[in-house]
Amino acid sequence: MTAKIISGTETAKAIREELKQEVDQLREKHNVVPGLVTILVGEDPASQSYVTAKTKTAKALGIHSEQVTLPAETSEQELLAIVDKYNNDVKINGILVQLPLPKHINEGKVLFAINPDKDVDGFHPVNVGKMMLGEQCFLPCTPHGILELLQRSGTETSGAEVVILGRSNIVGKPIANLMLQKRKAGNATVTICHTRTKDMAFHTRRADIIIAAVGVPKMVTADMIKEGAVVIDVGVNRIGMTSEGKAILAGDVDFESVKEKAAAITPVPGGVGPMTITMLMKNTVQAAKQAAGLI
Ligand code: GUN
């Protein structure tokens, strides 16, 4: 079997076209322009490229976009003051502080300082709690993107054995929670594997759907999966540099071997990555509609 490729690039493009129309309508009918600010502290190249991609996508959709780039030495106090400024800025509906932050800044303190109504990343405890309870809220962008990919690719999740590799607050924990809920792309039986799991392959081999988010290049190999599994690769690992200075990326999944055994697989790049950015745009539009009293 050669797997169907689940293209995040194509799926994201379709959703962005829907969003662009929505943004145009908001502007023309209601005089509402959604606004997003991205805040980056330090010079991590991966974070820089994510933030640039987010700003560029926002602009392409007609979303008002601001980018704040701060030196690595920025104090927690200074960062909190900037967050507060944007909490009170009516032009801005969404605030995104790119993670990870430098070690001297308390990540939780900064995330908790964002107004939950502007928390388009879905990282504030109010939104995490609402998500957990299945209430209307901003869903975190990468898990939300994975749900859309599963749904739009026609993957049956109800009753499926889903094995998640990684227990981060950004991906592993929220996607586990969402997939066990009684909802579209939910109703799954969920297992989370992590660094202390005794026999990861034992779990992955019985999975109908594997979601890999561990940050270890090509860790999931063909011998670890069941014939016909659906494999979602969240990993974005920089494994080298081209002669033109471009990063060479690899996922957490050994794409070449796994695609011969899986029923469907997401590539890296062009899989989950474009979906994460698109879900951020969707949340920003949602935040603008909420702020304008339209939902
Ligand atoms: N770093 C890696 N992924 C994310 C994300 O989805 N949001 C933010 N703010 N930082 C990240």
Task: Name some characteristics of this structure.
295 residues, alpha/beta, Rossmann fold, 2 domains, three-stranded parallel sheet, 10 helices, globular, binds guanine
Notes on the protein architecture:
- It is a single chain.
- The protein is an alpha/beta fold.
- It folds into 2 domains: 30-117, Leucine Dehydrogenase, chain A, domain 1 (Rossmann fold); 141-272, Rossmann fold (3-Layer(aba) Sandwich).
- It is built from 10 helices and 11 strands.
- The chain has helices at residues 8-30, 45-60, 76-87, 107-113, 125-133, 141-152, 172-180, 200-204, 255-258, 272-291; strands spanning 4-5, 35-41, 64-70, 94-97, 161-165, 189-193, 209-212, 230-233, 237-241, 247-250, 264-265.
- The strands form 3 sheets. It has a 6-stranded parallel β-sheet with strand order 1-11-8-7-5-6. Strands 3-2-4 form a 3-stranded parallel β-sheet, with helices on both faces. Strands 9-10 form a two-stranded antiparallel sheet.
- A hairpin with a 5-residue loop joins strand 9 and strand 10 (247-250).
- Helix 6 crosses helix 7 (172-180).
- The relative contact order is 0.18.
- Bound molecules: guanine.
- Guanine is lined by residues 96-99, 121, 141-142, 170, 276.
